[in-house]
């Protein structure tokens, strides 16, 4: 029988959720969903100095925003201390682990000597019990650390779903400290106990953890645990080929929300970043779940491409209803100092959404309708020429009597152009400038319709007076 799929996302809450972490979470989530498994959230908060409740909140908020629902958790490692201690106790009792009383100074001296001899510094096993070996006398008053009795011979090997077969000689691995002198368990050990207890079948994580894996496999084997399958996902690079960092722009997932990205766009983009389904660039969450596999996770690092993200975001903005987008940008308009009035925001959104790459842009464009109206005298001087004023007066007079619909407005403009032998911009530009304060707007008839008859007539009349 094949093992039920159980994946986990195991962030250390030392800061916000960054793009790399979000992608790992997404891959783990998608893998669990694809194989009808469970997705577990485990907060690795044993580093008490660096872990904060704010970071936990920030990570949960970001997972929520990306809609990466977990089936179990959040579990907190700090609440599993008893369990880790119990396992360490069992390992000490039957010799899978042992006490080491070497002081830090002693270990420094040991490494110094090894370096002087030109060998790689590593723990020399001085406190490791062996049949027939006499251990040093236990020093008084020195609290020991606990070390894992790593196999001496042979090698650890696993078939990494991203990287292929990786083999590390046990001779390369130290007897890892699994509990510090104060009794607290160490990072790699906690991960093993939890992966075991949580019956994790697939560990999908960043390849910065690949060095931990042989150690973890040895510990898991010593625990008698069924080994998970590992997939170490290559990192994300910035556009310049360096590891993605703040230098390249925002790396905090929530910054993308603030910058006007839709969660479905970021999810689509992150999924495509280091994983592929043929040439598909745009796919829904459902498609992702039905297609996601480890075979198509890229073997080489992915490159962050802000232009592509914007293109994808524009796609998803176009997919959203005008009403939805209106709700999303209303607070942004308020923040920009705009005042929502009788001009329907959803209709305004409809005018601009096709070209908006972010909600920020959409809100900025929508401000054309909601900012405090201030005539731009320079623009007026350029566009509202003495020659055009009578035509504008006629527009106001006749416009006042028509039904205020886009098509009617367009027809009136056309008639006036024909009657006076004018080209479109000669009339459209002054209308735009007088009514909106800007010479660049979407289609003039649509814009005038939205501003409303009373406002348009009033502004045109005042402008030419
Ligand atoms: N807590 C680790 C991190 O945030 C992840 C450990 C793991 O996935 O095994 O980098």
Give the CA-based shape.
Answer: elongated
The spatial strand order of the largest sheet comes to 1-2-3
Give the amount of beta strand, in percent.
Answer: 5-15%
Which segments are poorly predicted (pLDDT under 50) over 5 or more consecutive residues? Answer: none
* CATH topology annotation of the largest domain: Rossmann fold
Average pLDDT confidence is 97
**Count of extended strands:** 12
Beginning-to-end CA distance, first to last residue = 86 Å
Question: Which tags fit this structure?
Answer:
Glutamyl-tRNA Synthetase, domain 3, 12 strands, Rossmann fold, 4 domains, mainly alpha, elongated
What does this structure look like?
There is one protein chain. With 465 residues, the protein is mainly alpha-helical. The chain has four domains: 1-75 and 156-168 and 184-319, Rossmann fold (3-Layer(aba) Sandwich); 82-155 and 169-179, Glutamyl-tRNA Synthetase, Domain 3 (Glutamyl-tRNA Synthetase, domain 3, Alpha-Beta Complex), CATH 3.90.800; 321-369; 377-464, Arc Repressor Mutant, subunit A (Orthogonal Bundle), CATH 1.10.10. The chain contains 19 helices and twelve strands. The chain has helices at residues 19-34, 53-65, 81-93, 104-116, 187-197, 213-223, 253-258, 263-272, 285-291, 306-319, 322-335, 345-352, 359-370, 377-383, 389-399, 406-420, 424-436, 444-451, 453-464; strands spanning 6-9, 38-43, 72-76, 97-100, 145-148, 155-160, 164-169, 177-179, 202-206, 229-233, 236-237, 302-303. The protein has a three-stranded parallel β-sheet, with helices on one face. Helix 12 (345-352) crosses helix 13 and helix 18 (444-451) packs across helix 19. The protein is elongated and about 110 Å long. The mean pLDDT is 97. The structure holds glutamic acid. Glutamic acid is lined by residues 10-12, 44, 191, 205, 209.
């Amino acid at each position: 029988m094949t093992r039920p799929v159980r994946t986990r996302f195991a962030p250390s809450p030392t800061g916000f959720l960054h793009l790399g972490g979000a992608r790992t979470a997404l891959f783990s989530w998608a893998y669990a969903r694809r194989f009808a498994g469970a997705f577990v959230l485990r907060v690795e908060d044993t580093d008490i100095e660096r872990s904060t409740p704010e970071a936990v909140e920030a990570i949960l908020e970001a997972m929520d925003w990306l809609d990466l629902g977990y089936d179990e958790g959040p579990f907190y490692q700090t609440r599993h201390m008893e369990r880790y201690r119990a396992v360490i106790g069992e390992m000490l009792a039957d010799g899978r682990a042992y006490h080491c009383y070497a002081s830090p100074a002693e270990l420094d001296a040991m490494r110094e000597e090894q370096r002087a001899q030109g060998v790689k510094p590593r723990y020399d096993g001085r406190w490791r019990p062996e049949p027939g070996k006499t251990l040093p006398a236990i020093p008084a008053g020195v609290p020991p650390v606990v070390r894992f009795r790593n196999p001496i011979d042979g090698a650890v090997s696993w078939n990494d779903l991203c990287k292929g077969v990786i083999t590390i000689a046990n001779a390369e691995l130290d007897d890892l400290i699994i509990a510090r002198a104060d009794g607290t368990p160490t990072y790699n050990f906690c991960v093993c106990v939890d992966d075991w207890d949580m019956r994790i079948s697939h560990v999908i994580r960043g390849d910065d953890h690949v060095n931990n894996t042989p150690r973890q496999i040895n510990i898991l084997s010593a625990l008698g645990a069924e080994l998970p399958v590992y997939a170490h996902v290559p990192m994300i690079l910035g556009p310049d080929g360096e590891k993605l960092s703040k230098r390249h722009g925002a790396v905090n997932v929530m910054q993308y929300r603030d910058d006007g990205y839709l969660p479905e766009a970021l999810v689509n983009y992150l999924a495509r970043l280091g994983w592929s389904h043929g040439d598909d660039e745009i796919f829904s969450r459902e498609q992702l779940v039905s297609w996601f596999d480890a075979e198509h996770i890229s073997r080489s690092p992915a490159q962050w491409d802000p232009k592509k993200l914007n293109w994808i975001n524009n796609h998803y903005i176009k997919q959203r209803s005008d009403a939805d987008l209106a709700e999303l940008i209303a607070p942004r308009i308020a923040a920009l100092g705009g005042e929502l009035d009788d001009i329907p925001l959803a209709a305004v959104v409809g005018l601009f959404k096709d070209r908006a790459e972010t909600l920020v842009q959409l809100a900025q464009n929508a401000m054309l309708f909601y900012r405090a109206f201030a005539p731009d005298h320079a623009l007026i001087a350029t566009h509202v020429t003495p020659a055009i004023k009578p035509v504008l007066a006629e527009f106001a007079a006749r416009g006042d009597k028509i039904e205020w619909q886009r098509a009617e407005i367009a027809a009136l403009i056309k008639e006036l152009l024909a009657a006076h032998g004018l080209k479109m911009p000669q009339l459209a530009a002054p209308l735009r400038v007088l009514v909106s304060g800007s010479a660049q707007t979407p289609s003039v008839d649509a814009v005038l319709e939205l501003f409303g008859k009373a406002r348009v007539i009033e502004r045109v009349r005042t402008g030419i007076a």
